[in-house]
Amino acid sequence: MPAAGQPLYRGLDRAQLELAYNNTRAVPGFPAILADFQARSARLYWEHPCLRDGAYGPGPRQRFDWFGCGRPDAPVFIFIHGGYWQATTKEDFAFIARGPLEQGFDVVLAEYTLAPEASMSRIVGDIGRLLDHLAASEGEFGLRGRRVVLSGHSAGGHLTALFRSHPALTHAMPISALVDLEPISLCWLNDKLQLTPAEIAAFSPLRQIGRGVPTLVTVGNDELPELLRHSRDYAVAGVQAGEQVSYLPLPGCHHFSVLDDLARPQGIQLRSLLALMDAGPR
Fold first, then answer.
1. Does residue 97 fall inside a structural domain?
2. What are the helix (H) ranges across the chain?
């Protein structure tokens, strides 16, 4: 075990890493924020019919919700929730669907198995299985012939970045993404994840930048410095690799209010995403 106070990562010791990734401590009133998210999500489910808990595998959390906007062949916005791979549900964040729906997207809310029940390998496998399932589906609940955006917040942003090369996608928008698992493995977040060296290497998007779809990397400008660094470093690395990756810090937003912006049809993220989609490939 490292001695107390010994630097572990980029000059940060264990205690500093504990704080560097503690978003709920950094944002005052998080329980009230989550309760508001849940209330708004329940209202959306009540107001908007959807396919609820469609199965993409046999596991109890291998499920997705599909909200239709009412337009034939609408683009599809797939959203993966956060929670550091070990907490929350798609139902907690359904409220974000309102913005994309009003902009003419069909919306998919993805669920996946959480740690400690699932390893990172299994969590990543769940998202791959979901995308493969949707890509192979026919008719209303399929992706064939459509523009498809994969997005996700925090841990969901990590999973988004990992899958930006999936053949079913046309665009990606990781939000407040965690793109290097090494510091995650060195703090309290690893108590349930139990990341292996092989998983850190294979599933850190910052280390795995390859050919992928045009990508908009967003993050709240008032987030913790480490969260800002992850997004900024990933965008820079993407550009250096010759990829179509852009960086969008959201003024006045913290780790959770970035989702309020996403839920607004005229929010900065959706307007920027639509501009990217209209621009086409470079």
1. yes
2. 14-20, 23-26, 30-47, 98-102, 120-136, 155-162, 190-193, 197-202, 225-240, 257-262, 268-279
**Domain around 193:** 14-277
* 241-246 CB contacts, 8 Å cutoff, 24+ apart: 241/209, 241/210, 243/209, 243/211, 243/212, 243/215, 244/213, 244/214, 244/215, 244/281, 244/282, 245/214, 245/215, 245/216, 245/217, 246/215, 246/216, 246/217, 246/276
179-182 — which CB contacts under 8 Å span 24+ positions?
Answer: 179/204, 179/205, 179/206, 179/230, 179/231, 179/233, 179/234, 180/204, 180/205, 180/206, 180/207, 180/230, 180/233, 181/120, 182/9
pTM over 0.90: yes
CA distance 141 to 214: 24
Cα distances (angstroms) measured from residue 41 to each of 36, 67, 97: 8, 13, 9
Report the relative pairing of strands 63-67 and 106-110 from DSSP bridges.
antiparallel
Q: Give the list of residues 6+ apart from residue 15 with CB closer than 8 angstroms, or none.
A: 5
Phi, psi of 81, deg, nearest 5: -75, 160
For residue 165, what is the domain's CATH number? Answer: 3.40.50.1820
CA atoms of 9 and 17, how far apart (whole Å): 8
Has residue 5 been placed in a domain? Answer: no
Domain count, the chain: 1
Matching residue, tokens 């280390």? 207
Q: What is the pLDDT of residues 125-169, one digit of tens each?
A: 999 999 999 999 988 899 999 999 999 999 999 999 999 999 999
User: Where residue 1 falls among pLDDT bands split at 50, 70, 90?
Assistant: very low
Query: Residues 29-60: pLDDT tens digits?
Result: 999 999 999 999 999 999 999 999 999 999 99
